[in-house]
Design brief:
alpha/beta, globular, single chain, binds 2'-monophosphoadenosine-5'-diphosphate
């Protein structure tokens, strides 16, 4: 059997094996997909051992996305280069090739939700790896404006400036600032939480009045219950709120496509995961 895995630390909670097993069944691609726990300082060794066992592809999660980026240096997709991180490694011609499917997963889920990204004004909350990874797919989806805000405002300003310097999708205006200055006259069409605040079951400290009529809030985190950010957004007048389970399935679908050349249908897989969360 062709071998794939998700590598991280911790990894026991990962739903990727379940997702890829459902995609494999759906598309009739026989494969084996495991969880790999690597020591925090032992990523390269763990990956080498996986290759020796015949491994063909890896999904990479916390804390190894930068290690994977380094491992695939010189063999990176433009998405991975712009994201500055790799979540999908493919073994081809005796070397690892790196891609990043997180942003594509987000955009495909936003479209599934029926959101209109063309011309949209988007507030992106957070300026770490998760935020950086979604800038290119959001810009290429036609957003008119992306304003990045962060608890540490200087990081948001630096991320926006480095994005502008990249020269990618110059038709999208990308700016940075503080959480306190997140309001926009008339409101945002979409507010995305890319911070790690949900890990403490908290919402970022955003001012009220963020949402335009009909606007949506999307949390990259997910859970059995609506997240703290979703509750904050609903109280602030968001017309639609969603968590990041669909993004998880979307990034997996794109990885599956890279490895197997077939696009699985994320909808039944998302429904099964949602049911399992209850
Ligand atoms: P990731 O790869 O998940 O983006 P990261 O690079 O460590 O992880 O970035 C975490 C992000 O969550 C940062 O934007 C961080 O803000 P700071 O740059 O100010 O640290 C943000 N963050 C974490 N906890 C937060 C909280 N309680 N409220 C608001 N933002 C928070």
């Amino acid at each position: 059997l062709a071998r794939y895995a998700v590598i991280g630390n911790p990894i026991a909670h990962s739903r990727s094996p379940q997702i890829h097993a459902m995609f494999a069944e759906q598309t009739g691609k026989p494969l084996r997909y495991d969880r790999l726990l690597a020591p925090v300082d032992g990523f390269a060794e763990a990956v080498a051992a996986f290759v020796a066992e015949g491994g063909l592809g890896l999904n990479v999660t916390v804390p190894f996305k930068l290690d994977a980026y380094a491992l695939a240096a010189g063999r990176l997709s433009s998405r991975a280069r712009l994201a500055g991180a790799v979540n999908t490694l493919s073994w081809r011609d005796g070397a690892w090739h790196g891609c990043n499917t997180d942003g594509v997963g987000l955009v495909s889920d936003l479209l599934r939700l029926g959101l209109r990204l063309t011309g949209a004004s988007v507030l992106l909350v957070g300026a770490g790896g998760a935020a950086r990874g979604v800038l290119q797919p959001l810009a290429e989806a036609g957003c008119a404006r992306i304003h990045i805000v962060n608890r540490t405002a200087a990081k948001a300003e630096a991320l926006a400036a480095s994005w502008r310097d990249s020269g990618v999708s110059p038709q999208t205006a990308v700016t940075g600032g503080s959480l306190a200055d997140a309001a926009l006259a008339g409101g945002w069409n979409l507010v995305i939480n890319a911070t790690a605040s949900g890990l403490q079951d908290a919402a970022p400290d955003l001012p009220p009045g963020l949402y335009a009529p009909g606007a949506a809030a999307y949390d990259m985190m997910y859970g059995a219950q609506p997240t703290a950010f979703m509750k904050q957004a609903e109280a602030d007048g968001a017309a639609l709120t969603a968590d990041g389970l669909g993004m998880l399935v979307g990034q997996a679908a794109e990885s599956f496509y890279i490895w197997h050349g077939v696009r699985p249908d994320p909808a039944p897989v998302l429904a099964a995961l949602r049911e399992a969360l209850k």
